[in-house]
Amino acid sequence: MADIDEDSTIRAPDSTDTDLSDEPQDFRFLSALSQTSTSHPSLPRRGEKDFEHHGTISQTSTLEASQQAMHNALSVPRTHNPKNNIVGLYDPTNGTTIIENPKGPMTKTMGRGDIQGRLNLLPEEALYLIERGTMDLRWRSEELEGIPLSLQAAYAHLLGDQGLTLELYTVYTSLKRIGYVVQRGPAWYSEDYNKDFIKPRQLERDSKPLGLFARFYNSLFDTPHPDPPPSGPLVAPGLYRSYNSIYRLLSLISTHDPSLPPPTGNPSALPLPWAIPPPPPIPASAAASTRGNQPIRTISGNLLHLHRTSVLLSLTQERKVFRC
Amino acid sequence: MPASNGHTAPDLPFPVFQASSKVERYLLYDINTITWLRKNHNILGVLIGTLPQIPQQNVFLGLPLELQPEEARLLVEKGLAYTVNDLDWHTKDLASKNTTQVESIRADLHRDGIEVARELQKSKQKQTREALKRLRINSFSTVSSHSAASPDPQAQDDTPEETLFADLPTPESTQAQSVLEPKPWTVTPTISYPPLSAPPVPSSPALPKSTPSSYALFAHLHDKGYFMSPGIRFGCQFSVYPGDPLRFHSHFLAMSAEWDEEIDLLDLVGGEGWGRGLRRGG
After folding, report:
1. I need a surface site. Which of A205, A298, B53, B248 has the fewest CB within 10 A?
2. Where is the tRNA intron endonuclease catalytic domain (chain B) (predicted)?
3. pLDDT tens-digit series, residues B58-68
């Protein structure tokens, strides 16, 4: 890199560098996007930018257009169709939010239902639903019957409630926006999480008791082989009835099992604020129709992902890392 | 047009909202103020909300806009803005509203809702009309190509518009008349003022807290006409842009230190590494 002219490297940004959230985005692409988007809008590539002012009218007008596009994109109001409006009620006296008639996909993974069929929302959930334009939140008081909370009022009332800081909320929404189901983690309910992070879900193959025949078969053939001698081949010549016993002999270095809880060095170091529950188990019928060990691989893959995310979360309490 | 262009200046000083005393962050909700600040005062802030149009992505974010503490402080020191405790203001102002005022707010919201519904209906009708038109033209062109061998293709080609409108408007116009007044939609407003009354301007506004050294650096660079956005993801305090980052690449990364503060070499090397990777000056 040192032999390349500094100036030319500054002037020619690498076009293969594609992390869109790294740079401030040009909202002109958003307007192009939202006009054409019907089913699956794909995100645009970043636009070409300039190094410095060169006083041309073209540059000024492009900048104007970008600013105007940003202004327009940010001015779009949050409107609710009366047909499928989700109305939330916020009680300012005790800070609770309820949805009396929950419907729609967003409410399925949020809140806590009660006996009357209402959904009680946590402050971050309520705020997120307003922000994305899903819920119409109104005051739950006689004088202000039917009047909605503005986005600003919702921020004022819901942030700071139950210890929800803007940092925590930013992490929450950025995870929600990319499609995770996010629940409160150990930092919120420390007494419930006296053991470890999330209790890892048992893999299906562990929890399922073996049938009588399988146990009999295993007792016949799956006898543990003795440890290999200090020298010589790892797999000594002999009779092997399954690949598993050979694999066991071949594994010299213990591998990382993502389903196990991470080792706890200092438990009070950084409590994890958010937990992402693993996806629901695959129904038996679906598992049967999938060939081989496909379902199990999917689950462990997800678990690995979950584990990575939790590590990332614990590393980045600093909110700006998460932001565009 | 200039009014809708976002050039409208807010009434000065304008309020900067601190959500509540528990949340020491400064937020702006009014898009006019935000665009005005960006164009006239080189203040960027950071968008932190979800865009309601395309909510499932993290690339384009929406309102509210969070001001960096340095930005908020600069605005207050210049007398352009003052900080408001949002929760207190909402609670007080809502409590002071009498029934007639609440009634008028309700009527306003209802009117807005009807407006939205009408606009939507109109655009829907327009879409239908255009789709029908396209359909008609397509079918017509296939018909005309089929009948190209007919004795008088020229006459047909000359009157596509007429054939189109001779057939279509009858069912469509009756449809438009039969559609009832749409049910009003509901709108979640972004800002609270109006309808609430403007928060009172304090005689001596509280200054947003920020580290002295970073504020000095920010104020200096801002004075020179640079735009600053948070540089934490590049291992620095600010990434510095020569103009609006919508158009310009950043020139360098900046980090502040006290006068006799020892500068950790690792910070320098780290920042340099990030900057080099992203083609920024150190």
Report:
1. A205
2. 214-270
3. 888 888 899 99
